[in-house]
Amino acid sequence: MKRTSSRKARETRAVANAPDGSGSPSTLETRYAAARNQLNPRRQRLLRAILDSADETCFLSSREMAKRFHIDATTILRTTQVLGYASFAEFAADLRQHFISRITPYTVLKAATKEKRSVEDHIEHSLEKALDNLNAAKSDLDVQGIIAMAKLIKRSRRVVVVGLDFAASLSYYLAYGLLALGFDAEAPIGSGNLQYKVEVLTAKDLLIAISFGQCLRDTVDAVVRAKKQGVPTFGITDNNTSPIARYCDAYLITPVVSPSFLVSYVAPVAVISAIHVACAHIDPKRSLNRLRPTDREYAAGHRWYRETKRSNGDSS
Q1: Structure confidence by residue, pLDDT tens digits, 65-120
Q2: How far from chain centre, in Å, is Cα 112?
Q3: What does residue 259 show for φ and ψ, rounded to 5 degrees?
């Protein structure tokens, strides 16, 4: 939910825009701006150089980074501590997130090809990162936020889930599960169709927006338009400073970091599954009444594929 710690709130207020001119500063950029006065010019230049070459620095160890910039590793560690990081690993994680949110799929893949890994290693690394995201989502899951979202969905007349481009798969999954539970939910496709759907929403409805990194313009525009109409808005995104987090009434955070040219949706799918579970159990009687007719359909087997039995017993 949209209840950040006091430190994060101060950091968010400290930076209205990202240093590179984009509308959504990364967590690392936010920390950098908040601690700028505590950094001498040399360390400011160091951090700027690290950020500007994130495609090459985000996978380096502290020693490798120190070697690249011709300084000692202690300077790297002390500089990250000024930003509030307890360890270089925490700094490196935010640097990778900054990298992912700022660059193109081409640049991501280009950086990955510079690593000395075999194809098998790349596959294993991608699965390890997906598992890391899933574990992070589980450990940091805002359970009360999910319950609050489920309650909001229950009392809403209509739910519009906005997720475009690659995130369309997530919006469809969320809307499909809600429909199965009897909620009036849909995931509009196409910018024109989306605009018309948002225009008819009222304060009795709900708009759920899904977007990550810098966030897609049409998705953010839908949130802004809905808020002007008094429509409650809920977001699913990957950091506290994304446009979705800043403009939605409340939001959930889920990691999407990936060494691939596409972000990883393993954790978002798990979070959406948790939303479905919450919606089902917030009013189990209602959910059972809705699913009872489908129980007969499942048992009848008409929707499932069955091999045709031939009289001679040959199924070939």
Answers
A1: 999 999 999 999 999 999 999 999 999 988 987 876 676 788 778 878 887 889 99
A2: 21
A3: -80, 0
- Give the separation between CA 51 and CA 15, rounded to whole angstroms: 16
Tell me if residue 197 falls in helix, strand or coil: helix
pLDDT digits (tens, 9 = 90+) for 282-308: 999 999 999 988 887 777 767 777 777
C-alpha 26/C-alpha 19 separation (Å) is 10
Amino acid, single-letter form, for residue 116: K
Domain ranges within the chain, ordered by starting residue: 6-116, 143-294
Which tokens in the block code for residue 275?
A: 């939303």
Task: Tokens for 235, please give them.
Answer: 């977001």
The torsion angle over the Cα atoms of residues 202, 203, 206 and 208, rounded to 10 degrees, is 90
Sign of CA dihedral 277, 279, 284, 290: negative
Which pTM value belongs to this model? 0.71
17 closest CA partner among 235, 241, 245, 244: 241
Ramachandran bin of 70, using left for φ above 0, alpha for ψ from -120 to 50, beta for the remaining angles = left
Q: Which residue has the tokens 């972000």?
A: 263
| Residue where the block lists tokens 């997906």 | 130
**For the structural domain made of 143-294, what CATH number should be given?**
3.40.50.10490
